[in-house]
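[step 3/7] fold_predict: job queued, chain A
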Amino acid sequence: MLSDMTSTSTSRGTGPRAERASGSRATTRFAAAGLFAIASMIPFAGTSAATTGSVHQVIAAARSQTDAISANLAAARTDARSLGGTLRAMVSSAVESAAAASEQAGTALTSASDAARSTEDLLGRATVEIADAQVALEAAWAELHHATDQVAGSGTPVPGSLTELSDHLDALRGQTEAG
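[step 4/7] structure written:
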């Protein structure tokens, strides 16, 4: 089902994320099991058992990303504390934004799951919560991306936990990079 939802666009970036993209300046982005995919599928959840099953499959995959973010937060917080002054504050703020966005996404996933299972009209609430969570994830990703660029620009190696956290946010946002 996910292969039916691929969309491509070109993203040009700088900094550590662009350097990781196998040396290429341009990367292709594909829709993944993120909130974007769920938002596009949830209106069709009640139309057939197959569609409802697909929605629950995508919700489960997205929930695994929120779990991965939660598991990664402790290491990211520890790595943030090892940085000096301004960088520490910037990275700590970005990590806490990621934590809040992940929690909001978890709530939205629960609403989406309830809407997909229910005969009640929970679709409206789930759609709004997913949209709100998507905005929070975009903001958290942008803040984390800026913070990691600042760390890299300072000559300090970017901790792996921050790179992993960014990758998990990408996946939950519905974006994965292919070099």
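[step 5/7] annotate
The chain has one domain: 2-178.
Strands lie at 10-12, 26-31, 175-178.
exit 0
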